[in-house]
Amino acid sequence: MGMTRIHRRSVLAGLCGISVIPPFANAAEEYVDLEWTDLVPKGQVIIPQEIQELTQHSQSTPRGKQPQSTGVRSDWNGQTVRLRGFIVPIDYSGTGVTAFILVPFVGACVHVPPPPANQLVFVTTETPYESSGLYEPVNVTGMFGTASTTTQLAEIAYALSADRIEPYGD
Protein backbone atom coordinates (compact mmCIF):
# COMPACT_ATOMS: atom_id res chain seq x y z
CA MET A 1 0.00 0.00 0.00
CA GLY A 2 2.92 2.36 0.73
CA MET A 3 4.13 1.85 -2.85
CA THR A 4 0.71 2.79 -4.25
CA ARG A 5 0.57 5.97 -2.18
CA ILE A 6 4.02 7.09 -3.38
CA HIS A 7 3.03 6.28 -6.93
CA ARG A 8 -0.15 8.36 -6.66
CA ARG A 9 1.75 11.28 -5.19
CA SER A 10 4.30 11.06 -7.99
CA VAL A 11 1.54 11.06 -10.58
CA LEU A 12 -0.22 14.01 -8.93
CA ALA A 13 3.06 15.91 -8.64
CA GLY A 14 3.80 15.18 -12.28
CA LEU A 15 0.37 16.40 -13.38
CA CYS A 16 0.75 19.57 -11.33
CA GLY A 17 4.17 20.12 -12.89
CA ILE A 18 2.74 19.80 -16.39
CA SER A 19 0.14 22.47 -15.70
CA VAL A 20 2.88 24.82 -14.48
CA ILE A 21 5.26 24.38 -17.45
CA PRO A 22 3.36 26.47 -20.04
CA PRO A 23 3.44 29.73 -18.00
CA PHE A 24 7.21 29.33 -17.43
CA ALA A 25 7.76 28.65 -21.13
CA ASN A 26 5.89 31.84 -22.01
CA ALA A 27 7.61 33.82 -19.25
CA ALA A 28 10.92 33.50 -21.12
CA GLU A 29 9.43 35.71 -23.85
CA GLU A 30 8.00 38.28 -21.44
CA TYR A 31 10.00 40.98 -19.70
CA VAL A 32 9.65 44.28 -17.90
CA ASP A 33 10.94 47.23 -19.96
CA LEU A 34 12.97 49.40 -17.57
CA GLU A 35 14.24 52.94 -17.95
CA TRP A 36 17.26 54.24 -16.03
CA THR A 37 14.96 56.44 -13.94
CA ASP A 38 13.24 53.26 -12.70
CA LEU A 39 16.45 52.23 -10.91
CA VAL A 40 16.53 55.29 -8.67
CA PRO A 41 14.52 55.33 -5.42
CA LYS A 42 11.44 57.53 -5.55
CA GLY A 43 12.24 61.13 -4.69
CA GLN A 44 15.93 60.91 -5.63
CA VAL A 45 17.19 63.21 -8.37
CA ILE A 46 19.29 61.78 -11.20
CA ILE A 47 22.32 63.87 -12.16
CA PRO A 48 21.95 64.71 -15.87
CA GLN A 49 24.82 63.78 -18.20
CA GLU A 50 25.73 67.42 -18.85
CA ILE A 51 26.18 68.13 -15.14
CA GLN A 52 28.35 65.03 -14.75
CA GLU A 53 30.54 66.16 -17.64
CA LEU A 54 30.95 69.59 -16.06
CA THR A 55 31.86 68.12 -12.65
CA GLN A 56 34.98 66.50 -14.07
CA HIS A 57 36.44 70.02 -14.33
CA SER A 58 35.16 71.16 -10.93
CA GLN A 59 37.61 71.44 -8.04
CA SER A 60 34.99 70.01 -5.65
CA THR A 61 34.65 66.76 -7.66
CA PRO A 62 38.02 65.25 -8.65
CA ARG A 63 38.20 63.76 -12.14
CA GLY A 64 36.88 60.22 -12.09
CA LYS A 65 35.20 60.44 -8.65
CA GLN A 66 31.88 58.62 -8.57
CA PRO A 67 28.97 60.54 -6.99
CA GLN A 68 27.39 58.94 -3.91
CA SER A 69 24.38 56.69 -4.52
CA THR A 70 21.44 57.08 -2.15
CA GLY A 71 19.85 53.68 -2.43
CA VAL A 72 18.49 51.08 -4.81
CA ARG A 73 15.13 49.67 -5.78
CA SER A 74 14.44 45.97 -5.36
CA ASP A 75 11.08 45.98 -7.18
CA TRP A 76 12.41 43.85 -10.06
CA ASN A 77 14.66 41.42 -8.14
CA GLY A 78 14.42 38.01 -9.77
CA GLN A 79 12.40 39.26 -12.73
CA THR A 80 13.31 39.25 -16.40
CA VAL A 81 13.85 42.83 -17.56
CA ARG A 82 15.07 44.69 -20.62
CA LEU A 83 17.24 47.77 -20.25
CA ARG A 84 18.89 49.91 -22.93
CA GLY A 85 22.37 51.34 -22.45
CA PHE A 86 26.00 51.33 -23.53
CA ILE A 87 28.68 48.69 -22.92
CA VAL A 88 31.83 49.32 -20.90
CA PRO A 89 33.70 45.99 -21.32
CA ILE A 90 35.14 44.22 -18.28
CA ASP A 91 35.91 40.69 -19.53
CA TYR A 92 36.23 38.97 -22.90
CA SER A 93 36.12 35.47 -24.35
CA GLY A 94 37.93 35.63 -27.68
CA THR A 95 36.64 38.80 -29.32
CA GLY A 96 33.26 38.75 -27.54
CA VAL A 97 32.40 40.56 -24.30
CA THR A 98 31.27 38.24 -21.47
CA ALA A 99 31.10 40.77 -18.61
CA PHE A 100 30.49 44.49 -18.82
CA ILE A 101 29.03 47.51 -17.09
CA LEU A 102 25.81 48.71 -18.70
CA VAL A 103 25.78 52.51 -18.46
CA PRO A 104 23.06 55.04 -19.30
CA PHE A 105 25.10 57.27 -21.61
CA VAL A 106 28.14 57.16 -23.89
CA GLY A 107 31.45 57.67 -22.11
CA ALA A 108 30.24 56.92 -18.58
CA CYS A 109 33.07 55.33 -16.55
CA VAL A 110 35.51 56.05 -19.39
CA HIS A 111 35.56 59.73 -20.40
CA VAL A 112 33.60 61.23 -17.50
CA PRO A 113 33.17 60.27 -13.86
CA PRO A 114 30.95 57.20 -13.39
CA PRO A 115 27.30 57.78 -12.53
CA PRO A 116 26.11 56.81 -9.04
CA ALA A 117 26.07 53.07 -8.33
CA ASN A 118 22.28 52.95 -8.75
CA GLN A 119 22.75 54.02 -12.38
CA LEU A 120 25.11 51.14 -13.26
CA VAL A 121 24.37 47.48 -13.99
CA PHE A 122 26.97 44.69 -13.99
CA VAL A 123 26.07 42.32 -16.84
CA THR A 124 27.33 38.79 -17.39
CA THR A 125 26.54 36.54 -20.32
CA GLU A 126 27.42 32.96 -21.17
CA THR A 127 27.30 33.75 -24.89
CA PRO A 128 30.02 36.35 -25.72
CA TYR A 129 28.59 39.46 -27.37
CA GLU A 130 30.48 40.81 -30.37
CA SER A 131 30.27 44.51 -29.58
CA SER A 132 31.07 47.12 -32.20
CA GLY A 133 32.41 49.46 -29.51
CA LEU A 134 31.57 51.82 -26.67
CA TYR A 135 29.25 53.95 -28.78
CA GLU A 136 26.85 51.14 -29.71
CA PRO A 137 23.53 51.28 -27.82
CA VAL A 138 22.23 47.84 -26.84
CA ASN A 139 19.15 46.25 -25.32
CA VAL A 140 20.00 43.73 -22.62
CA THR A 141 17.34 41.25 -21.49
CA GLY A 142 17.75 38.85 -18.59
CA MET A 143 17.37 38.14 -14.87
CA PHE A 144 17.77 41.33 -12.83
CA GLY A 145 18.60 42.05 -9.21
CA THR A 146 20.35 44.25 -6.70
CA ALA A 147 23.96 43.22 -6.16
CA SER A 148 26.76 45.39 -4.84
CA THR A 149 29.81 44.99 -7.08
CA THR A 150 33.06 46.94 -7.14
CA THR A 151 35.32 47.16 -10.19
CA GLN A 152 38.37 49.33 -10.93
CA LEU A 153 36.03 51.74 -12.71
CA ALA A 154 33.11 52.09 -10.30
CA GLU A 155 30.84 50.74 -7.62
CA ILE A 156 27.78 49.07 -9.14
CA ALA A 157 24.40 48.52 -7.44
CA TYR A 158 22.65 46.16 -9.86
CA ALA A 159 23.38 42.93 -11.72
CA LEU A 160 21.82 41.35 -14.78
CA SER A 161 22.40 37.84 -16.11
CA ALA A 162 21.86 38.40 -19.83
CA ASP A 163 19.85 35.95 -21.90
CA ARG A 164 19.84 38.28 -24.89
CA ILE A 165 21.96 41.27 -25.97
CA GLU A 166 20.95 43.08 -29.14
CA PRO A 167 21.86 46.33 -30.83
CA TYR A 168 19.25 48.92 -29.81
CA GLY A 169 16.45 49.13 -32.32
CA ASP A 170 16.54 45.44 -33.35
UniProtKB/TrEMBL annotation:
UniProt keyword Signal, yes or no: yes
Keyword Transmembrane helix listed: no
InterPro entries tied to this protein: DUF3299
Keywords: Signal
Residues annotated as signal peptide: 1-27
Segments for region (Disordered): 55-75
Coiled coil: none
Domain of life: Bacteria
Name this protein carries in UniProt: DUF3299 domain-containing protein
